[in-house]
């Protein structure tokens, strides 16, 4: 489920997301969320954002759902692909905004890297 990073004062959107999470929990569906809210290109853990967890807790504490099983998972990489761009940013060069065109043209080069295997 893709949601906005910030809901602002949008009561309708907040209610819609809460109702959707209630429904997922009530019907026993699994869903995943990334509590860091983004990815770290340095490999360091980012501080958590509690938005989705607050929706899950509200569902339970209000009695709209009986329970929820939360399973924290972390995905770590031995090699950071963006090392070169990260170093240039540390030297003061502004971060280049990511876009679909760059992803599509540069994606094949990333896919051809030898970064290990998944067994």
TrEMBL record:
Location in the cell: Endomembrane system
Name the UniProt record assigns to this protein: Uncharacterized protein
Pfam family, any one: GPAT_C
GO MF, any single term: glycerol-3-phosphate O-acyltransferase activity
PANTHER family hit by this protein: DIHYDROXYACETONE PHOSPHATE ACYLTRANSFERASE (PTHR12563:SF17), GLYCEROL-3-PHOSPHATE ACYLTRANSFERASE (PTHR12563)
InterPro entries named among the record's database cross-references: GPAT/DHAPAT, GPAT/DHAPAT_C, Plipid/glycerol_acylTrfase
Main location: membrane
Domain Phospholipid/glycerol acyltransferase, first and last residues per copy: 2-74
GO BP field: fatty acid metabolic process; glycerol-3-phosphate metabolic process; phospholipid biosynthetic process; triglyceride biosynthetic process
Membrane topology of this protein: Peripheral membrane protein
Membrane-crossing segments per the record: none
GO annotations of cellular component type: endomembrane system; mitochondrial membrane
Domain GPAT/DHAPAT C-terminal as annotated: residue spans: 86-119
